[in-house]
Amino acid sequence: MNPVKNQSIRIYVITTTILGLFAVAIGAFGAHGLKDTIGERLPVFETGSRYHFYHLLVCLVITALYLVKPESIAKSVSVSFWLFITGILFFSGSLYVYAITGLKILGAVTPFGGILFMIGWILLGVGINQSFLSPKKN
């Protein structure tokens, strides 16, 4: 395998692993540490946690694709991975901050994270089509 590709895949694995660790830790913190503290903002926290997990799982699948067939994956799949990661930070991160602190200042960041998720899904679909469903040109 190309050393550059190998390094890129390693970054995918490390990024996904770290965000997975945070997803579990943050989810447990919300379920056990915040339940009685943040009151009506708990559903906001749970929404952030759900979207964190959903998009993390997609990043895990993308990482697995790169591990299995790195030479076949379209560039747009890689871009979607990073859009999902950035979307987790902006969307879920801003919801976590609001739920825990009550600060609404990051509220403008939340929809931007959602837009990153949507663009990521579009690019993932395009990339999967290019990588696996389109006829190969010789």
From TrEMBL:
Which parts pass through the membrane?
Answer: 12-31, 51-68, 80-99, 105-128
What topology does the record note for this protein and the membrane? Multi-pass membrane protein
- Which InterPro entries does the protein's record reference? DUF423
Q: In its UniProt entry, what is this protein called?
A: DUF423 domain-containing protein
Name the predominant localization: membrane
Alphabetical GO CC annotations of the entry are: plasma membrane
Question: Does this entry carry the keyword Nucleotide-binding?
Answer: no
User: Keyword set for this entry?
Assistant: Membrane, Transmembrane, Transmembrane helix
In the UniProt record, does the keyword Ligase occur? no
Domain of life where this protein originates? Bacteria
Compartments where located: Membrane
Family membership noted in the UniProt record: Belongs to the UPF0382 family.
